[in-house]
Amino acid sequence: MTTIARATDTLTRDALAVLQPGFTGTTAPDWLLRRLDEGLASVALFGRNVSTPEQVAALTARLRAEREDVLVAIDEEGGDVTRLEVRTGSSFPGNLALGAVDDVGLTREVAAELGRRLADCGVNFNWAPSADVNSNPDNPVIGVRSFGAGTDLVARHTAAYVTGLQSSGVAACTKHFPGHGDTAVDSHHAVPRIDVDGDVLAARDLVPFRAAIAAGSRAVMSAHILAPALDPDRPATLSRRILTDLLRGELGYQGLIVTDGIEMRAIAGTYGIERGSVLAVAAGADAICVGGGLSDEDTVRRLSDALVEAVRSGELPEERLADAAERVRALAGWAAANRPSGGAAGSADTEVGLRAARRALRLTGADGFTPLTEPPYVAAFTPVANIAVGDETPWGIAAELSRLLPGTETGSFTGPDAGGEVLAAAGKRRIVAVVRDEHRHPWMAAALDRLLATRPDTIVVEMGVPRAEPRGSLHLATHGAARVCGRAAAEAVAGA
Protein backbone atom coordinates (compact mmCIF):
# COMPACT_ATOMS: atom_id res chain seq x y z
CA MET A 1 0.00 0.00 0.00
CA THR A 2 1.27 3.46 -0.87
CA THR A 3 1.91 5.69 2.11
CA ILE A 4 2.16 9.44 2.16
CA ALA A 5 5.62 9.20 3.62
CA ARG A 6 6.90 7.85 0.30
CA ALA A 7 4.66 9.39 -2.32
CA THR A 8 3.27 12.79 -3.23
CA ASP A 9 1.57 11.89 -6.51
CA THR A 10 -1.68 13.54 -7.59
CA LEU A 11 -3.85 10.87 -6.02
CA THR A 12 -2.12 11.13 -2.67
CA ARG A 13 -2.17 14.93 -2.79
CA ASP A 14 -5.93 14.79 -3.36
CA ALA A 15 -6.35 12.36 -0.48
CA LEU A 16 -4.39 14.69 1.80
CA ALA A 17 -6.31 17.73 0.57
CA VAL A 18 -9.65 16.41 1.83
CA LEU A 19 -8.43 15.88 5.40
CA GLN A 20 -8.86 18.49 8.13
CA PRO A 21 -6.63 17.07 10.90
CA GLY A 22 -5.77 18.33 14.34
CA PHE A 23 -2.54 18.06 16.28
CA THR A 24 -1.27 18.45 19.83
CA GLY A 25 0.65 21.40 21.24
CA THR A 26 0.73 25.14 20.70
CA THR A 27 3.29 25.04 17.91
CA ALA A 28 3.09 23.21 14.60
CA PRO A 29 4.85 19.82 14.71
CA ASP A 30 7.30 18.94 11.95
CA TRP A 31 5.07 16.19 10.56
CA LEU A 32 2.23 18.66 10.02
CA LEU A 33 4.44 21.13 8.17
CA ARG A 34 5.75 18.31 6.03
CA ARG A 35 2.22 17.18 5.12
CA LEU A 36 1.32 20.72 4.10
CA ASP A 37 4.14 20.57 1.59
CA GLU A 38 2.85 17.20 0.35
CA GLY A 39 -0.73 18.32 -0.27
CA LEU A 40 -2.53 18.82 3.02
CA ALA A 41 -4.76 21.88 2.56
CA SER A 42 -6.40 22.29 5.98
CA VAL A 43 -5.43 22.26 9.65
CA ALA A 44 -7.86 22.16 12.57
CA LEU A 45 -7.31 23.97 15.86
CA PHE A 46 -8.81 22.86 19.17
CA GLY A 47 -8.55 24.16 22.72
CA ARG A 48 -5.32 22.27 23.33
CA ASN A 49 -3.67 24.36 20.59
CA VAL A 50 -4.60 27.72 22.12
CA SER A 51 -2.95 29.73 24.87
CA THR A 52 -3.16 33.38 23.76
CA PRO A 53 -4.27 35.23 20.62
CA GLU A 54 -0.64 36.15 19.96
CA GLN A 55 0.40 32.50 20.16
CA VAL A 56 -2.36 31.46 17.74
CA ALA A 57 -1.32 34.22 15.33
CA ALA A 58 2.28 33.00 15.43
CA LEU A 59 1.12 29.42 14.90
CA THR A 60 -1.02 30.25 11.87
CA ALA A 61 1.77 32.40 10.43
CA ARG A 62 4.08 29.40 10.63
CA LEU A 63 1.51 27.26 8.83
CA ARG A 64 1.19 29.87 6.08
CA ALA A 65 4.93 30.03 5.69
CA GLU A 66 4.64 26.42 4.54
CA ARG A 67 1.41 26.82 2.54
CA GLU A 68 0.13 30.34 1.96
CA ASP A 69 -3.49 29.37 1.26
CA VAL A 70 -3.93 26.82 4.07
CA LEU A 71 -7.39 26.63 5.60
CA VAL A 72 -7.11 27.01 9.37
CA ALA A 73 -10.32 25.69 10.91
CA ILE A 74 -11.66 26.02 14.44
CA ASP A 75 -14.79 25.07 16.36
CA GLU A 76 -15.56 28.51 17.75
CA GLU A 77 -19.30 28.88 18.24
CA GLY A 78 -19.01 31.40 21.04
CA GLY A 79 -21.09 30.77 24.13
CA ASP A 80 -20.58 27.38 25.71
CA VAL A 81 -18.44 26.05 22.83
CA THR A 82 -15.28 28.12 22.68
CA ARG A 83 -11.74 27.21 21.70
CA LEU A 84 -10.20 30.67 21.41
CA GLU A 85 -11.18 31.40 25.03
CA VAL A 86 -11.22 27.84 26.28
CA ARG A 87 -9.58 28.66 29.60
CA THR A 88 -11.50 31.82 30.47
CA GLY A 89 -14.96 31.45 28.95
CA SER A 90 -16.26 33.24 25.90
CA SER A 91 -16.62 36.97 25.37
CA PHE A 92 -19.70 36.18 23.30
CA PRO A 93 -23.02 34.64 24.29
CA GLY A 94 -24.03 31.58 22.33
CA ASN A 95 -26.85 31.06 19.89
CA LEU A 96 -29.66 30.57 22.41
CA ALA A 97 -28.96 33.96 23.97
CA LEU A 98 -28.94 35.60 20.55
CA GLY A 99 -32.19 33.88 19.69
CA ALA A 100 -33.73 35.07 22.97
CA VAL A 101 -32.89 38.67 22.07
CA ASP A 102 -34.11 38.06 18.50
CA ASP A 103 -32.34 41.01 16.92
CA VAL A 104 -30.80 39.80 13.66
CA GLY A 105 -28.69 42.95 13.47
CA LEU A 106 -27.16 42.10 16.85
CA THR A 107 -26.51 38.50 15.78
CA ARG A 108 -24.76 39.78 12.67
CA GLU A 109 -22.65 42.18 14.77
CA VAL A 110 -21.67 39.46 17.26
CA ALA A 111 -20.66 37.08 14.45
CA ALA A 112 -18.69 39.82 12.69
CA GLU A 113 -16.74 40.67 15.85
CA LEU A 114 -16.07 37.01 16.57
CA GLY A 115 -14.90 36.63 12.98
CA ARG A 116 -12.65 39.68 13.31
CA ARG A 117 -10.92 38.13 16.32
CA LEU A 118 -10.48 34.84 14.49
CA ALA A 119 -9.10 36.59 11.42
CA ASP A 120 -6.67 38.58 13.57
CA CYS A 121 -5.34 35.22 14.80
CA GLY A 122 -5.05 33.88 11.26
CA VAL A 123 -8.05 31.56 11.47
CA ASN A 124 -10.15 31.62 8.30
CA PHE A 125 -12.64 28.74 8.61
CA ASN A 126 -15.10 28.40 11.49
CA TRP A 127 -17.24 25.30 12.09
CA ALA A 128 -20.21 27.51 12.97
CA PRO A 129 -23.05 28.38 13.19
CA SER A 130 -25.28 25.60 14.47
CA ALA A 131 -28.48 25.76 12.42
CA ASP A 132 -30.17 22.98 14.40
CA VAL A 133 -33.76 23.59 15.49
CA ASN A 134 -33.73 22.45 19.12
CA SER A 135 -37.17 20.83 18.91
CA ASN A 136 -36.36 18.13 21.47
CA PRO A 137 -35.93 19.75 24.90
CA ASP A 138 -34.08 16.66 26.15
CA ASN A 139 -31.39 17.03 23.48
CA PRO A 140 -28.10 16.30 25.30
CA VAL A 141 -25.70 17.89 22.82
CA ILE A 142 -27.37 20.86 21.08
CA GLY A 143 -29.39 22.82 23.66
CA VAL A 144 -27.98 26.33 24.08
CA ARG A 145 -25.94 25.86 20.89
CA SER A 146 -29.19 26.33 18.95
CA PHE A 147 -30.87 29.68 18.36
CA GLY A 148 -34.06 28.08 19.68
CA ALA A 149 -36.96 25.74 19.01
CA GLY A 150 -38.68 27.86 16.36
CA THR A 151 -37.86 27.14 12.72
CA ASP A 152 -38.20 30.69 11.42
CA LEU A 153 -36.25 32.10 14.37
CA VAL A 154 -33.38 29.70 13.76
CA ALA A 155 -33.43 30.37 10.01
CA ARG A 156 -33.17 34.15 10.22
CA HIS A 157 -30.44 34.11 12.85
CA THR A 158 -28.47 31.44 11.00
CA ALA A 159 -28.47 33.65 7.91
CA ALA A 160 -27.46 36.71 9.95
CA TYR A 161 -24.63 34.79 11.61
CA VAL A 162 -23.30 33.51 8.27
CA THR A 163 -23.38 37.03 6.83
CA GLY A 164 -21.65 38.56 9.84
CA LEU A 165 -18.95 35.94 10.14
CA GLN A 166 -18.07 35.98 6.45
CA SER A 167 -17.96 39.79 6.40
CA SER A 168 -14.74 39.35 8.41
CA GLY A 169 -13.19 37.06 5.81
CA VAL A 170 -13.85 33.89 7.81
CA ALA A 171 -15.71 31.09 6.04
CA ALA A 172 -18.84 29.89 7.83
CA CYS A 173 -19.60 26.18 8.14
CA THR A 174 -23.30 25.75 8.89
CA LYS A 175 -24.07 22.60 10.88
CA HIS A 176 -25.26 19.85 11.52
CA PHE A 177 -27.03 18.89 8.26
CA PRO A 178 -29.83 17.79 7.96
CA GLY A 179 -30.47 18.92 11.55
CA HIS A 180 -29.41 17.53 14.94
CA GLY A 181 -32.09 19.23 17.02
CA ASP A 182 -34.65 16.44 17.35
CA THR A 183 -32.31 13.92 18.97
CA ALA A 184 -32.02 12.43 22.44
CA VAL A 185 -28.62 10.83 21.79
CA ASP A 186 -25.24 12.55 21.48
CA SER A 187 -23.53 11.47 18.23
CA HIS A 188 -20.19 11.66 20.03
CA HIS A 189 -21.31 8.42 21.70
CA ALA A 190 -23.76 6.63 19.36
CA VAL A 191 -25.90 7.11 16.24
CA PRO A 192 -28.92 9.32 16.97
CA ARG A 193 -32.12 8.53 15.09
CA ILE A 194 -34.78 11.01 13.99
CA ASP A 195 -38.09 9.24 13.41
CA VAL A 196 -40.25 11.85 11.73
CA ASP A 197 -41.48 11.91 8.16
CA GLY A 198 -39.89 13.82 5.33
CA ASP A 199 -42.48 16.59 5.37
CA VAL A 200 -41.61 17.43 8.98
CA LEU A 201 -37.90 17.49 8.21
CA ALA A 202 -38.48 19.71 5.17
CA ALA A 203 -40.71 22.17 7.03
CA ARG A 204 -38.69 22.26 10.24
CA ASP A 205 -35.07 21.11 10.06
CA LEU A 206 -34.10 21.96 6.48
CA VAL A 207 -35.41 25.54 6.50
CA PRO A 208 -32.41 27.05 8.36
CA PHE A 209 -30.02 25.32 5.96
CA ARG A 210 -31.89 26.78 3.01
CA ALA A 211 -31.48 30.19 4.67
CA ALA A 212 -27.75 29.58 5.20
CA ILE A 213 -27.29 28.57 1.58
CA ALA A 214 -29.16 31.68 0.42
CA ALA A 215 -26.88 33.76 2.66
CA GLY A 216 -23.83 32.26 0.94
CA SER A 217 -22.48 29.89 3.59
CA ARG A 218 -19.15 28.67 2.20
CA ALA A 219 -19.41 25.29 3.93
CA VAL A 220 -21.96 22.92 5.45
CA MET A 221 -21.15 20.24 8.04
CA SER A 222 -22.91 16.88 7.96
CA ALA A 223 -24.40 15.21 11.03
CA HIS A 224 -23.81 11.61 12.09
CA ILE A 225 -27.54 11.04 12.46
CA LEU A 226 -29.89 8.48 10.97
CA ALA A 227 -33.03 9.98 9.41
CA PRO A 228 -34.94 7.00 7.96
CA ALA A 229 -37.30 9.30 6.03
CA LEU A 230 -34.27 10.44 4.03
CA ASP A 231 -32.12 7.31 4.10
CA PRO A 232 -33.11 4.25 6.13
CA ASP A 233 -29.68 2.65 5.93
CA ARG A 234 -26.90 5.17 6.47
CA PRO A 235 -26.32 8.21 8.67
CA ALA A 236 -26.25 11.54 6.87
CA THR A 237 -22.45 11.78 6.77
CA LEU A 238 -22.30 8.55 4.75
CA SER A 239 -25.48 9.00 2.73
CA ARG A 240 -25.43 9.87 -0.96
CA ARG A 241 -29.17 10.42 -0.79
CA ILE A 242 -28.68 13.14 1.82
CA LEU A 243 -25.40 14.79 0.81
CA THR A 244 -25.63 14.56 -2.98
CA ASP A 245 -29.30 14.11 -3.90
CA LEU A 246 -30.77 16.36 -1.18
CA LEU A 247 -28.10 18.92 -0.27
CA ARG A 248 -26.51 19.31 -3.69
CA GLY A 249 -29.50 18.40 -5.85
CA GLU A 250 -32.70 19.57 -4.17
CA LEU A 251 -31.23 22.43 -2.14
CA GLY A 252 -28.81 23.49 -4.89
CA TYR A 253 -25.82 23.85 -2.59
CA GLN A 254 -22.47 24.27 -4.37
CA GLY A 255 -20.02 24.93 -1.53
CA LEU A 256 -17.85 22.66 0.60
CA ILE A 257 -19.37 19.75 2.50
CA VAL A 258 -17.35 18.74 5.57
CA THR A 259 -18.09 15.89 7.95
CA ASP A 260 -18.50 16.21 11.66
CA GLY A 261 -15.60 14.61 13.54
CA ILE A 262 -15.05 11.25 11.87
CA GLU A 263 -13.70 9.74 15.09
CA MET A 264 -16.99 10.33 16.91
CA ARG A 265 -18.45 7.01 18.02
CA ALA A 266 -21.46 7.31 15.71
CA ILE A 267 -19.06 6.63 12.82
CA ALA A 268 -15.90 5.21 14.38
CA GLY A 269 -17.79 2.70 16.50
CA THR A 270 -19.89 1.44 13.58
CA TYR A 271 -17.77 1.74 10.45
CA GLY A 272 -14.27 2.64 11.65
CA ILE A 273 -12.58 5.88 10.68
CA GLU A 274 -10.94 4.56 7.51
CA ARG A 275 -14.06 3.06 5.98
CA GLY A 276 -16.15 5.90 7.33
CA SER A 277 -13.94 8.43 5.52
CA VAL A 278 -14.14 6.51 2.24
CA LEU A 279 -17.92 6.18 2.46
CA ALA A 280 -18.29 9.86 3.36
CA VAL A 281 -16.32 11.07 0.34
CA ALA A 282 -18.14 8.61 -1.91
CA ALA A 283 -21.45 9.96 -0.58
CA GLY A 284 -20.51 13.52 -1.45
CA ALA A 285 -18.48 14.89 1.45
CA ASP A 286 -15.50 16.99 0.39
CA ALA A 287 -13.57 17.22 3.64
CA ILE A 288 -13.06 14.90 6.61
CA CYS A 289 -12.90 16.56 10.01
CA VAL A 290 -10.61 14.62 12.33
CA GLY A 291 -8.50 15.61 15.29
CA GLY A 292 -10.81 16.31 18.18
CA GLY A 293 -9.75 12.97 19.62
CA LEU A 294 -7.24 11.51 17.18
CA SER A 295 -4.56 14.10 16.57
CA ASP A 296 -1.42 12.34 15.39
CA GLU A 297 0.45 11.75 12.17
CA ASP A 298 -0.56 8.11 12.04
CA THR A 299 -4.23 9.09 11.78
CA VAL A 300 -3.47 11.27 8.76
CA ARG A 301 -1.53 8.43 7.16
CA ARG A 302 -4.26 5.88 7.83
CA LEU A 303 -7.01 8.03 6.34
CA SER A 304 -4.98 9.13 3.34
CA ASP A 305 -3.94 5.55 2.62
CA ALA A 306 -7.56 4.38 2.93
CA LEU A 307 -8.73 6.95 0.37
CA VAL A 308 -5.91 6.13 -2.04
CA GLU A 309 -6.54 2.40 -1.75
CA ALA A 310 -10.29 2.90 -2.24
CA VAL A 311 -9.63 4.69 -5.52
CA ARG A 312 -7.19 2.03 -6.70
CA SER A 313 -9.62 -0.75 -5.82
CA GLY A 314 -12.48 0.95 -7.62
CA GLU A 315 -14.57 1.52 -4.50
CA LEU A 316 -14.15 5.31 -4.66
CA PRO A 317 -14.24 6.98 -8.10
CA GLU A 318 -11.08 8.96 -8.71
CA GLU A 319 -13.18 11.79 -10.14
CA ARG A 320 -15.11 12.08 -6.86
CA LEU A 321 -11.92 12.39 -4.81
CA ALA A 322 -10.51 14.91 -7.28
CA ASP A 323 -13.73 16.94 -7.14
CA ALA A 324 -13.67 16.92 -3.33
CA ALA A 325 -10.05 18.06 -3.26
CA GLU A 326 -10.77 20.82 -5.76
CA ARG A 327 -13.65 22.12 -3.62
CA VAL A 328 -11.30 22.30 -0.62
CA ARG A 329 -8.72 24.20 -2.67
CA ALA A 330 -11.43 26.53 -3.99
CA LEU A 331 -12.48 27.44 -0.46
CA ALA A 332 -8.84 27.91 0.49
CA GLY A 333 -8.53 30.27 -2.45
CA TRP A 334 -11.61 32.21 -1.36
CA ALA A 335 -10.27 32.53 2.17
CA ALA A 336 -6.86 33.67 0.96
CA ALA A 337 -8.43 36.25 -1.34
CA ASN A 338 -10.66 37.56 1.45
CA ARG A 339 -8.00 37.63 4.14
CA PRO A 340 -7.97 41.09 5.73
CA SER A 341 -4.86 43.05 4.80
CA GLY A 342 -2.39 43.73 7.56
CA GLY A 343 -4.17 41.34 9.88
CA ALA A 344 -7.03 43.80 10.51
CA ALA A 345 -10.57 42.56 9.94
CA GLY A 346 -12.47 45.81 10.35
CA SER A 347 -13.10 47.99 13.36
CA ALA A 348 -13.41 46.30 16.73
CA ASP A 349 -16.55 46.29 18.85
CA THR A 350 -15.17 44.60 21.93
CA GLU A 351 -18.28 45.12 24.06
CA VAL A 352 -20.86 43.69 21.64
CA GLY A 353 -20.82 40.28 23.33
CA LEU A 354 -21.47 41.73 26.77
CA ARG A 355 -24.25 43.95 25.44
CA ALA A 356 -25.86 40.89 23.86
CA ALA A 357 -25.56 38.88 27.08
CA ARG A 358 -27.20 41.66 29.08
CA ARG A 359 -30.07 41.86 26.61
CA ALA A 360 -30.56 38.08 26.75
CA LEU A 361 -30.95 38.02 30.54
CA ARG A 362 -34.50 37.23 31.72
CA LEU A 363 -35.48 37.91 35.35
CA THR A 364 -38.46 36.49 37.23
CA GLY A 365 -39.26 37.99 40.64
CA ALA A 366 -37.21 41.13 40.13
CA ASP A 367 -39.95 43.47 41.37
CA GLY A 368 -39.50 42.43 44.99
CA PHE A 369 -35.78 41.78 44.83
CA THR A 370 -33.18 43.83 46.67
CA PRO A 371 -29.67 43.47 45.21
CA LEU A 372 -27.10 41.79 47.42
CA THR A 373 -24.59 43.91 49.30
CA GLU A 374 -22.92 41.11 51.27
CA PRO A 375 -20.85 38.30 49.68
CA PRO A 376 -23.04 35.23 49.10
CA TYR A 377 -22.35 31.54 48.76
CA VAL A 378 -22.52 30.43 45.12
CA ALA A 379 -23.50 26.78 44.71
CA ALA A 380 -22.89 25.42 41.22
CA PHE A 381 -24.99 22.32 40.49
CA THR A 382 -22.67 20.79 37.92
CA PRO A 383 -23.82 18.21 35.37
CA VAL A 384 -21.44 16.22 33.19
CA ALA A 385 -20.48 18.41 30.23
CA ASN A 386 -21.00 17.04 26.74
CA ILE A 387 -17.90 16.53 24.61
CA ALA A 388 -18.62 19.49 22.32
CA VAL A 389 -18.56 21.86 25.30
CA GLY A 390 -15.83 20.04 27.21
CA ASP A 391 -14.90 20.44 30.85
CA GLU A 392 -11.92 22.78 30.43
CA THR A 393 -13.91 25.99 30.19
CA PRO A 394 -15.01 27.65 33.45
CA TRP A 395 -18.67 28.59 33.81
CA GLY A 396 -21.00 30.08 36.38
CA ILE A 397 -21.18 33.47 38.06
CA ALA A 398 -18.91 33.02 41.09
CA ALA A 399 -15.89 34.71 39.53
CA GLU A 400 -17.92 37.73 38.43
CA LEU A 401 -19.74 37.98 41.77
CA SER A 402 -16.39 37.82 43.57
CA ARG A 403 -15.31 40.87 41.60
CA LEU A 404 -18.46 42.76 42.56
CA LEU A 405 -18.81 41.35 46.09
CA PRO A 406 -15.34 40.45 47.41
CA GLY A 407 -15.43 37.52 49.81
CA THR A 408 -17.96 35.53 47.79
CA GLU A 409 -17.43 31.80 48.34
CA THR A 410 -18.33 28.99 46.00
CA GLY A 411 -18.54 25.22 45.65
CA SER A 412 -19.49 22.64 43.03
CA PHE A 413 -22.13 20.02 43.80
CA THR A 414 -23.68 17.04 42.07
CA GLY A 415 -25.86 14.05 42.92
CA PRO A 416 -28.97 13.41 45.02
CA ASP A 417 -27.50 14.88 48.24
CA ALA A 418 -26.44 18.15 46.62
CA GLY A 419 -29.16 20.22 48.28
CA GLY A 420 -28.19 19.19 51.80
CA GLU A 421 -24.51 19.60 51.03
CA VAL A 422 -25.09 23.17 49.89
CA LEU A 423 -26.99 24.02 53.06
CA ALA A 424 -24.14 22.71 55.16
CA ALA A 425 -21.48 24.52 53.15
CA ALA A 426 -23.26 27.87 52.91
CA GLY A 427 -23.95 28.39 56.58
CA LYS A 428 -25.77 31.67 57.09
CA ARG A 429 -24.69 33.22 53.81
CA ARG A 430 -27.26 34.08 51.15
CA ILE A 431 -27.26 31.28 48.59
CA VAL A 432 -27.04 31.72 44.82
CA ALA A 433 -27.77 28.37 43.16
CA VAL A 434 -26.45 28.06 39.61
CA VAL A 435 -27.96 25.31 37.45
CA ARG A 436 -27.57 24.14 33.89
CA ASP A 437 -30.57 22.46 32.20
CA GLU A 438 -32.49 21.74 35.39
CA HIS A 439 -35.27 20.14 33.32
CA ARG A 440 -32.91 17.40 32.09
CA HIS A 441 -31.45 16.42 35.47
CA PRO A 442 -33.81 15.01 38.13
CA TRP A 443 -31.07 15.13 40.78
CA MET A 444 -30.68 18.85 40.14
CA ALA A 445 -34.41 19.51 40.48
CA ALA A 446 -34.48 17.48 43.72
CA ALA A 447 -31.50 19.43 45.07
CA LEU A 448 -33.28 22.72 44.39
CA ASP A 449 -36.43 21.36 46.06
CA ARG A 450 -34.45 20.62 49.22
CA LEU A 451 -32.59 23.90 49.12
CA LEU A 452 -35.63 26.12 48.53
CA ALA A 453 -37.71 24.33 51.17
CA THR A 454 -35.17 25.40 53.81
CA ARG A 455 -33.88 28.62 52.25
CA PRO A 456 -36.66 30.20 50.15
CA ASP A 457 -34.57 33.37 49.76
CA THR A 458 -32.17 31.44 47.49
CA ILE A 459 -31.45 33.08 44.14
CA VAL A 460 -31.54 30.66 41.18
CA VAL A 461 -29.51 31.23 38.01
CA GLU A 462 -30.34 28.93 35.07
CA MET A 463 -27.44 28.90 32.58
CA GLY A 464 -28.80 26.21 30.29
CA VAL A 465 -32.08 25.98 28.39
CA PRO A 466 -34.70 27.56 30.70
CA ARG A 467 -37.41 24.90 30.47
CA ALA A 468 -38.08 24.33 34.17
CA GLU A 469 -40.53 26.59 35.99
CA PRO A 470 -38.73 29.68 37.37
CA ARG A 471 -38.35 29.57 41.13
CA GLY A 472 -36.38 31.13 43.95
CA SER A 473 -36.60 34.64 45.38
CA LEU A 474 -35.11 35.76 42.07
CA HIS A 475 -34.75 33.58 38.99
CA LEU A 476 -32.33 34.57 36.25
CA ALA A 477 -32.21 32.85 32.86
CA THR A 478 -28.98 33.66 31.03
CA HIS A 479 -29.58 31.38 27.99
CA GLY A 480 -26.02 30.08 28.13
CA ALA A 481 -22.96 29.69 30.32
CA ALA A 482 -20.47 31.96 28.54
CA ARG A 483 -18.33 34.23 30.69
CA VAL A 484 -20.31 37.29 29.57
CA CYS A 485 -23.56 35.56 30.52
CA GLY A 486 -22.15 35.05 34.02
CA ARG A 487 -21.16 38.69 34.18
CA ALA A 488 -24.62 39.86 33.14
CA ALA A 489 -26.22 37.68 35.83
CA ALA A 490 -23.75 38.81 38.51
CA GLU A 491 -24.50 42.46 37.69
CA ALA A 492 -28.21 41.82 38.22
CA VAL A 493 -27.67 40.00 41.51
CA ALA A 494 -25.38 42.72 42.88
CA GLY A 495 -27.26 45.63 41.34
CA ALA A 496 -24.17 46.76 39.44
Question: Could you characterize what this model shows?
Answer:
The protein is of the alpha/beta class and 496 residues long. Strands 2-3-4-5-6-7 form a 6-stranded parallel beta sheet. The protein is globular, with a radius of gyration of 23 Å. The termini are far apart.
Q: Describe the biggest sheet?
A: 6 strands, parallel
Evaluate the radius of gyration. 23 Å
Count the E strands. 14
Spatial strand order of the main sheet? 2-3-4-5-6-7
Unreliable residue runs: 1-7
Shape summary = globular
pLDDT average, as an integer? Answer: 94
Fraction of residues in H or I helices: 40-55%
Q: How many separate helices?
A: 18
What is the terminal separation in angstroms? 66 Å
% residues in beta strands? 5-15%
Structural class: alpha/beta
Brief digest:
The chain contains 18 helices and 14 strands. By secondary structure, the chain is α/β, with parallel strands linked by helices.
Topology, please?
Elements: H1 10-17, E1 19-20, H2 30-38, E2 42-45, H3 53-66, E3 71-74, H4 95-101, H5 104-120, E4 125-126, H6 151-166, E5 171-177, H7 198-205, H8 207-214, E6 219-222, H9 240-250, E7 256-259, H10 265-268, H11 273-283, E8 288-289, H12 297-313, H13 318-337, H14 352-360, E9 362-364, E10 377-381, H15 398-404, E11 409-413, H16 418-426, E12 431-435, H17 442-454, E13 459-462, E14 474-477, H18 483-494
Helix pairs in contact: 1-12, 1-13, 4-14, 5-6, 6-8, 11-12, 14-18, 15-18, 16-17
